[in-house]
Write a structure and sequence with these properties.
5-stranded parallel beta sheet, 42% helix, binds nicotinamide-adenine-dinucleotide
Length: 511
């Protein structure tokens, strides 16, 4: 049952959407997308901007919902769910514009005289979006915005833990959009599974690796393209020459923001031994000074739901039992689902806090002898979403960055690009190979259609009927590619002869 993570008060249930209702949402979205796709990008953007402005004006509402449903601090709600509506929409308009929804491609006039080609990016139809709870609005910018801007309809299945927060975003948009273009199906995994069966044309999934695998398999069976953005276990590589003040502040923020419940949160610090004692000491000083609680200017919210809370408790208990040193935190505060910032030192690879995603305010410190050892550990991880390198030597950091087998590498920062429309967000291994953000993600939402217009009156020389002239011409063309140019002068002559021959043949004479 859903309950407030702050005080465990039960939350109002949201009725589950039936499979029949989901199928009719998909149908309505498809019908509405007919006229939506005919509008220009400019028109679509203008309509969506009206909604974005309204969302900005009413931002307090979404902060309150995120606080109620997942205990999100209002200040984090403001930055994660409350102020990206317009800015990120404008970013997405730029990305779609740059991709060019209709683009002329110049063909070589010698080979393709009289022919003109265009590539059009055609909306796929209805996009099914299956979303997680950790950024119930923030996570939707990179799916719902590009889906709509490229001319699709959308059926959104938000997380069962944060249905009303995501619904708020959809309601604001839907108020400006054609009727039925965007709707929301509520419920848990079975409703997500039903959405995949309901006739959607493409699926954007964000969530955990096991669910992601199931979704991709089913989509593949149905012949539906899908994109899966999955979990992470990001490491910060802390080198001995780092600027310790900035590193401690940066690692703190990116380990604890959203109570650590971010796919791109720092969950492991791979720290060079030479700096490890000082790093852990400074981190402890900082983390014990952070405020855990529900107030507006507190630093740490509770965990968002019981499932997540139990997982964090179990992982920390296991690490302790396997010999990790609890530097600070390590026990629930006893109020709601609050869990304090927790540093576990001298962690080893067999511990779940090193191996598996934690999604909580917990940092596993692993001491390493060198940067090379840290790189090996990152590349051996089950996950491959992001990693960061903390050092004053930027040239060395650049070289190390290129050795990391992950999707996003930051130097002296971490994962702040997650919502930036221009920069790809993607991973390797269990983090999934879906691409969110940037023009590279657009193929999830559009398919290419090539349109070629031939304005020439002459037949193409390789058309039927075949003859010896065509044979000679083909061989001369092959030789020319090998720079055997002795007979190349004959090509235009043979070309004309072929055109004449085809014309004569189709004019009734057989030559
Ligand atoms: P989850 O996999 O439990 O659920 C995600 C969504 O899938 C929910 O809406 C859920 O109802 C739905 N679902 C569950 N079973 C389904 C099924 N069989 N078919 C279709 N849909 C189904 O994940 P979660 O706990 O909501 O989210 C946390 C996870 O999301 C973490 O692993 C986190 O790292 C990941 N995440 C990744 C990114 C990224 O960009 N890589 C961003 C945010 C969150």
């Amino acid at each position: 049952m859903r309950a407030s993570p702050i005080d465990l008060r039960p939350l109002e249930a949201v009725p589950e959407t039936s499979p029949a209702a989901i199928a009719s949402m998909v149908e309505r979205a498809r019908a509405a997308s007919g006229s939506w796709r005919e509008r220009s990008l400019r028109d679509r953007a203008a309509i969506m901007r009206r909604a974005a402005r309204s969302m900005l004006g009413r931002r307090d509402e979404v902060l309150a919902l995120a606080r109620e449903e997942m205990g999100k601090l209002e200040i984090e709600g403001l930055f994660h769910e409350g102020l990206g509506h317009l800015d990120l929409l404008n970013g997405w308009v730029g990305v779609v514009e740059a991709a060019g929804l209709r683009r002329r491609v110049r063909l070589n006039p010698l080979k393709f005289g009289g022919k003109k080609a265009w590539v059009e990016l055609v909306p796929r139809g209805v996009v099914g979006v299956i979303a997680p709870w950790n950024f119930p609005v923030g996570n939707l910018y990179r799916s719902v915005y590009p889906a709509l801007l490229t001319g699709n309809g959308v059926v959104l299945k938000p997380s069962e833990w944060t249905p009303r927060t995501s619904q708020w975003f959809a309601d604001q948009l839907a108020a400006e959009l054609p009727d039925g273009l965007l709707s929301v199906a509520h419920g848990a995994g079975a409703v997500g599974a039903a959405l995949i069966e309901a006739g959607i044309d493409t699926c954007v999934f964000t969530g955990s690796p096991p669910t992601g695998r199931e979704v991709r398999v089913r989509c593949a069976q149905l012949g539906i393209p899908s994109s899966a953005e999955l979990g992470g276990k990001d490491a910060a590589i802390v080198l001995a020459d780092c600027d310790l003040d900035r590193t401690v502040a940066g690692v703190t923020h990116w380990a604890l923001s959203n109570a650590g419940q971010a796919c791109g949160a720092i969950e492991i610090a791979l720290v060079e031994s030479a700096v490890a004692d000082r790093f852990v000491e400074r981190l402890k000083e900082a983390w014990t000074g952070l405020r855990v609680g529900p107030g507006r200017f507190f630093d740490l919210s509770p965990l968002a739901n019981r499932k997540q809370f139990d997982l964090v408790v179990a992982q920390v208990d296991e690490a302790r039992a396997l010999g990790a040193e609890v530097v600070c935190g390590g026990q629930p505060t006893g109020e709601g689902l609050f869990y304090p910032p927790t540093i576990l030192d001298r962690c080893t690879p067999e511990m779940a806090v090193v191996r598996d995603e934690t999604f909580g305010p917990v940092l596993a410190v692993v001491r390493v002898e060198s940067a090379a050892e840290a790189v090996r550990q990152v590349n051996r991880s089950r996950y491959g979403l992001g990693a960061s390198i903390w050092t004053r030597d930027l040239a060395r950091a650049g070289k190390l960055a290129r050795q990391l087998d992950v999707g996003i590498v930051d130097v002296n920062n971490h994962s702040f690009t997650g919502a930036i429309p221009e920069l790809p967000w993607s991973g390797t291994r269990a983090s999934g190979f879906g691409i969110a953000n940037s023009g590279l993600s657009l193929l999830t939402f559009v398919r290419p259609r090539t349109v070629v217009v031939d304005a020439g009156s002459a037949p193409d020389p390789f058309w039927m009927p075949y003859d010896e002239t065509l044979w000679d011409m083909g061989n001369l063309l092959a030789d020319a590619q090998l720079m055997k140019l002795g007979g190349a002068w004959r090509i235009p002559f043979l070309w004309r002869r072929r055109v004449r021959r085809i014309r004569e043949f189709f004019a009734g004479g057989t030559g």
